[in-house]
Description:
Blueprint: H1 5-12, H2 27-32, H3 39-66, H4 71-81, H5 85-105, H6 109-119, H7 127-137, H8 142-164, H9 169-192, H10 203-211
Helix pairs in contact: 3-4, 3-7, 3-8, 3-9, 5-6, 5-7, 7-8, 8-9
Amino acid sequence: MSDYQLALQQLTDSALPTGAFAHSLGFETYIERRLVRDEATFGVWLAAFVGQQLTYSDGLAVRFLYEGVPVVELDEQLTAQLLPRQLREASTKMGTRLLEIGAEVFPSSELAEYRELVRSGRAAGHQPLVFAIIARSLGVPYPDALAAYLFATVTTLTQNAVRAIPLGQNAGQRLLRGASDDVAAAVERVYKLGPDDFGAISPGLEIAQMRHERQRARTFMS
């Protein structure tokens, strides 16, 4: 077994207390409008989210950090491109929490530097960047790190949908199995994208995320 595998399982475990259970990242708006109402319709939303937001935003952020783009530069670009306020706050809330956990469990000089930038207000502390820093420090190869990050996000969102729609646990597992193909396709797509693609996200997803801010009744923070 590679040295990093067990650590990567811990890093992507849904029990890791980053607060991800409190965020729908926009799908609650679709539930409220009855566009997401069952296993099939959530699967459509999830495929779109993986193919768009996770690919062109988080996925590219992970890749660029692995390629040596300065974390401060990527942090600024993520802050600028995450137009919905709740999504921006979700990324930094979960990122800041992961920074604190990482400092104790997965310490590294690069993580300490990013943590200091966040503490001093010179960076926001986005979740995909914190994850990528930790994964790289553990020696996780880039393709494994990206696939793990994407699938961990999919797992959390599916668990949240199981509670919110609601769906059965078997339906959740079927969704995860189907989403694995979308994750694999996203990993391949991220390889082919360039800097000009960073943040090129479907307006429909962003509009739904913005509408959530003023939704009449909400279960999730985003």
